[in-house]
Amino acid sequence: MVPMTDTPNLALPYILAAQAQKHVTHNEAIRALDCLVQLSVASRALTAPPTTPEEGSRYIVAAAATGDWASQDAKIAAYQDGAWAFYTPRDGWLAWVTSENVIVVYDGSGWAALPSGGGGVTDHGMLTGLADDDHLQYLTDARGDARYTPIDPVTLGINATADATNRLALKSPASLFDNEGNGHQVKVNKNAASDTASVLYQTNYSGRAEMGLAGDDDFHFKVSPDGTTWHDAILIDRSSGKVSCPQGGPTVQVFTASGTWVKPAGCVKIKATVIGPGGDGGSAPATTGSTKATGAGGGPGGWSILYKDVTAVSSIAVTIGVHGGGTTSFDVASATGGGNGGTAGPTTSSGIGGSPGISGVGSGGTINGGGWIGSGGEIGTGASGSSGIGGSSILGGGPAGHLSGSQRNGSDATVPGAGGEGSYNTGTQSAATGGNGAPGCVIVEEYYA
Length: 449
Description:
The protein is mainly beta. The protein has helices at residues 22-36, 140-143, and strands at residues 40-41, 58-60, 76-80, 83-87, 94-97, 102-106, 111-113, 156-158, 168-170, 196-203, 206-214, 219-223, 231-236, 243-244, 251-255, 259-262, 269-275, 292-295, 303-309, 315-319, 327-330, 333-336, 343-347, 362-363, 367-369, 378-379, 385-386, 403-404, 424-426, 441-447. It has two helices and 30 strands. It has a five-stranded antiparallel beta sheet, with no helix packed on it. It has a five-stranded antiparallel beta sheet with strand order 15-30-17-19-25, with no helix packed on it. A five-stranded antiparallel beta sheet has the order 16-20-21-22-24, with no helix packed on it.
């Protein structure tokens, strides 16, 4: 039988017969016992040795170790006599990991937390609420034994691994924070206003939404497409309680001249309001002597509102109709212009007015309609009379008519799609001019969700 040189379990070296310098072998065995008996390691997460290890400190070497720990994965690393010594674990070895407050077991291929239950020993040091007559052997004032001082864990993982940042970690289908007879508050406190106290929602550990006090003391609702770029969607002012949308809600483009609408980045839907141009006010004919004449107000442009998904669209042509009969168009929606105001006179009769311009009409949109026609003006008694009122578009009214005892030229409309003011003439005058109708316009509201 060949004599063994090492013990079968801990691989401690035997002192052999007639061996010189027996103390060397003896001290080597003592060092191994000092490391492996009552095994407690500082950490099992390091892949490289600490820069200033303490004498006697022990670690479980993490996978893919480097430096002095290279190729020593899963072994026990002990800093002894100013150098690193490594011990190969065997199936069933136990170690207390100080940084995690957990017992781990080596299963032949790696280290894992020791499963609970199955006849294990309860750690009474974790018990709380013991009365003086309950388990006196576990009370420090009964035994005076420091081993039973309650443990204050730095981290706690429940079916999950806690770390230095996530010191409390839980993995479960749901969590319940219940009341104890009344209400229940969950409190998230931060140190200073510039810090963050929030709830973060993630997909595969990458942030997608966050709500809370993010960088100041206002309440933020934020979203992110990638966990890096964040957008404040809703902001509640801490002082006034006023709610704002930092992204501005829908963006708007207004076209008062023909051109091209180009879709902004991220836009998915639009609402386009298409307004036809206003008609011109009527021009009162020339008058002589005591004759009088009046011009009616121009008609308003029609309107069409189009709701459209623009996911697959990059741009749309815009045509703006001009006064006196043009048409405004955007995609399939269009709106014709209002009619020009009619005339009455010259005449010496009173109570007569011209015919106001008819309204334009909308078509092709989701909703279509016309405006409100103006008035025909009126030839009054004596030299007085009034010009016709311009028709009102969907955005507002045309210029008002005016009572006059002399010649009056009509005012141009300024509200998109409104009809121009009519005119009035009396005495010996050349024809009076009606006001121009306002051009049409297109208003595009752009939505991003």
